[in-house]
């Protein structure tokens, strides 16, 4: 049975999509069968892995709103062992359209359960909000990975996210655990980064991944080529650290 990991933080630009795509691709690279699930209407994970939005007939919207089977929406990618449930801008309507529907919080969970035995890992890229799409992702998941950018106010807003995680644990998914906090975009040339690492470790203690993601220009270039870093530039520092993260995730079980 596959392990489902939601990559969540309601702040934008903290590295959710970069982590979803590259953790997913690195898990696939080390031989795991992986499904990337794009739950952000911006569809950055979809385009970042090389799927043309124009070629997407069905997307996550059809699963969440129209009860279409996940099997009919899954697409393979150019990366071996890596499939994706894509998102298009159509998904932007789902947050509102789901509100009056039955079992609106558990739709993703039910859809993924039907394909869970075909994958070792499913990685869900969440939108930058704590609305119904993120709730669906957390409800479907075994674990949540929280990317935190190494900058001033790194911890700001995290209490809201943790509160949402607690509410989901209480009412929708008692099995959800905080898999870990991932420090991202560390600029090793500044002292600020070191201070933020200390601050986050003080708060989250052993929940912080040993792997820390530095700022790496190759990581920011890769999406415009529709490739994960392990394909775009396998010898880059970015590829190295996301491979380390994938191994850490596997060891964590
Ligand atoms: P989110 O999904 O949380 O909004 P993204 O993963 O899209 O965040 O990252 C925001 C921006 O920062 C993107 O342009 C991305 O390419 C860039 N980025 C993310 N991680 C890194 C990194 N480690 N080094 C350099 N650029 C990064
Ligand atoms: Mg994103």
From TrEMBL:
<dbReference type="InterPro" id="IPR050678">
    <property type="entry name" value="DNA_Partitioning_ATPase"/>
</dbReference>
<dbReference type="InterPro" id="IPR025669">
    <property type="entry name" value="AAA_dom"/>
</dbReference>
<feature type="domain" description="AAA">
    <location>
        <begin position="3"/>
        <end position="178"/>
    </location>
</feature>
<dbReference type="InterPro" id="IPR027417">
    <property type="entry name" value="P-loop_NTPase"/>
</dbReference>
<protein>
    <submittedName>
        <fullName>ParA family protein</fullName>
    </submittedName>
</protein>
<dbReference type="Pfam" id="PF13614">
    <property type="entry name" value="AAA_31"/>
</dbReference>
């Amino acid at each position: 049975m596959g392990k489902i990991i939601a990559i969540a933080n309601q702040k934008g630009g903290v590295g959710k999509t970069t982590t979803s795509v590259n953790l997913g691709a690195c898990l696939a690279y080390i031989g795991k069968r992986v499904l990337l699930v794009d739950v952000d209407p911006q569809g950055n994970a979809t385009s970042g892995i090389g799927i043309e939005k124009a070629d997407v007939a069905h997307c996550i919207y059809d699963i969440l709103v129209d009860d279409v089977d996940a099997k009919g929406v899954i697409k393979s990618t150019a990366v071996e062992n890596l499939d994706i449930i894509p998102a298009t801008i159509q998904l932007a309507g789902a947050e509102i359209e789901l509100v009056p529907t039955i079992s609106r919080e558990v739709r993703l969970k039910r859809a993924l359960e039907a394909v869970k035995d075909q994958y070792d890992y499913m990685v869900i890229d969440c939108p930058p909000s704590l609305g119904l799409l993120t709730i669906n992702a957390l409800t479907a998941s075994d674990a949540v990975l929280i990317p935190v950018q190494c900058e001033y106010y790194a911890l700001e807003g995290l209490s809201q996210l943790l509160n949402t995680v607690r509410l989901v644990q209480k009412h929708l998914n008692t099995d959800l655990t905080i898999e870990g906090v991932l420090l991202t975009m560390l600029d090793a040339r500044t002292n600020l980064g070191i201070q933020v690492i200390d601050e986050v470790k003080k708060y989250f203690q052993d929940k912080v991944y040993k792997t820390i993601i530095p700022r790496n220009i190759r990581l920011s270039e890769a999406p415009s080529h529709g490739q994960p870093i392990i394909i775009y530039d396998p010898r880059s520092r970015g590829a190295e650290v996301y491979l380390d993260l994938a191994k850490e995730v596997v060891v964590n079980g």
